[in-house]
Amino acid sequence: MKLKPYLKYKDSGIQWIGEIPEEWEVKKVKHFSISIAGGTPDTTNTAFWDGKIPWLPSGRVHDKSIHENEVTTFITLEGLSKSSAKWIKKDSVLVALTGATCANIGYLTFRATANQSVIGIQPNRKTNSKYVFYYLLSQREQILLHQTGGAQAGINKEDIVNLFCAFPQKIEQEAITSFLDSKTSKIDQTIEKDKELIELLKEKRTALINHVVTKGLDPKAKMKDSGIDWIGDIPDGWEVKKLKFFANEKKNKVKDAENKKYIGLEHIESETGKLKKYGNSNDVDGDTLTFTENNVLFGKLRPYLVKVVITQDRGVCSTEIIVYEAKEVLPLFLKYRLISKGYIDYVNSLTYGVKMPRADPTTLSNIKLPVPPKKEQFQIVEYLDKETSKIDQTINKIQEKFNLREEYKTSLIHHVVTGKVDVKEAVA
Question: What is the C-alpha separation between 7 and 23, in angstroms, rounded?
Answer without folding.
Answer: 10
